[in-house]
Amino acid sequence: MKNRKKLGLAAWIFIAMVAGILVGLCFLGKPELTTQYIKPIGTIFINLLKFIVVPIVLLSLICGMISMKDIKKVGAIGWKTIVYYMITTLIAIVIGLAVANIFKGAFPLLDTTGAEYTANSSNFMDTIVNIFPSNLWAPLVNATMLQVIVIALFIGAGILLVGEKAQPMVTVVESAYEVFMKIMMLIIKCSPIGVFCLMVNVVAVNGPAIVGSLAIVLGVAYLGYILHMFIVYSVAVKSIAGMNPVTFFKNMIPAIIFAFTSTSSVATLPLTKECSDKMGANPEYSSFILPLGATINMDGTAIYMGVATIFIATCYGVTLNLSQMLAVVLTATLASIGTAGVSGAGMIMLAMVLEAVGLPVEGIALIYGVDKIFDMGRTTLNIVGDASCAVVVSKIEEKRSARKKAA
Ligand code: ASP
């Protein structure tokens, strides 16, 4: 029943996307009409994305920190899991930025006269200095995302250090997180309307060629997904777990199909666990590694953020320099950790990355219409990454206890 409902939303989003393209074509030559009457409804959705991003980032990261106390409990495998997740996510964002930079010549430069943008152009040291807030509220009010992240990490660390006495705060934070997640889900539920309105306007204003550009940026993201999947995970399972990558991917097929269609790592969790355990992951470990992965490990989302950021920057005529790219690496890594494993969440966190490097969040309107297609690929990669970690860490532990026994 639940799945049918989910597929229902996906189907509506696709219908909205196609209808948006067709209606947009009807308005070619008279974009003022769509800009005046249809775009404002889409703008409401973009505003809602901006509105939800600060509480979601703040609360999800504090909750993530709070869950670290379980990591201490699970001991060695906790840290190995975190290190594996961090390294693969960093590789993912680098792959995303690399493929997008290689193909950025094929991305369009849109007519954005009247709205000139330059990305935040501080040097690397300034970027580091600027992530530390001098005020508690200003970053929340101005959505200065790197500072919001630092605030979240401090509050999380404070809660962990205080221990028992911080329990009321834990309850408040966890309950507030639930509430804002619900609000986020409501916004996502209304997304077919937003997709339709933004698509109509994007096509009417930029002409049919934009549909081709969207196909190109989707292709670039999928190239990144495929490279990461078949290079990084194959190397990891082969070299560390000694498993034939073909066996690994074959065993993952049921979970892959479910993730691709449901676009939710959390909903796919039972299948991810079944597939991982079947191919030899220790069930006890995987019941810690996989739920944690569905919450914090989002390699597909990281690739998508790299590609989407470069695409939007190019459309607005902005070229990112090396230190701005580093800021993207930093924020996208943290944003992917903060992304909830539910459909469409990655796009909301993209708002945070754009905000952090000073690119127009409105740029999301360009790719909002096809987000579902991005999401199908990124969710698939997200869960395959979690499963590869379960297999790899189980193997490392197995070897370690064998060595211990032998000694
Ligand atoms: N849908 C993705 C997932 O559940 C998250 C995202 O939107 O990037 O893994």
Q: What's this entry about, in short?
A:
The chain is mainly α. Helix content is 81%, strand content 0%.
Task: Characterize the structure shown.
By secondary structure, this protein is an all-alpha fold. Helix content is 81%, strand content 0%. It has 18 helices and no strands. Helix 4 runs parallel beside helix 14 (299-315). The longest helix has 36 residues, at 31-66.
Annotation keywords:
0% strand; 81% helix; binds aspartic acid; disordered N terminus
Could you outline the blueprint of secondary structure elements for this entry?
Elements: H1 2-26, H2 31-66, H3 68-74, H4 76-103, H5 124-130, H6 138-142, H7 145-162, H8 167-189, H9 191-206, H10 209-239, H11 245-262, H12 265-278, H13 283-296, H14 299-315, H15 322-338, H16 345-357, H17 364-368, H18 371-406
Helix pairs in contact: 1-9, 2-7, 2-8, 2-9, 2-16, 3-4, 4-10, 4-13, 4-14, 4-15, 4-18, 10-14, 10-18, 11-12, 11-18, 12-13, 12-18, 13-18, 14-15, 14-16, 14-18, 15-16
The structure holds aspartic acid (ASP).
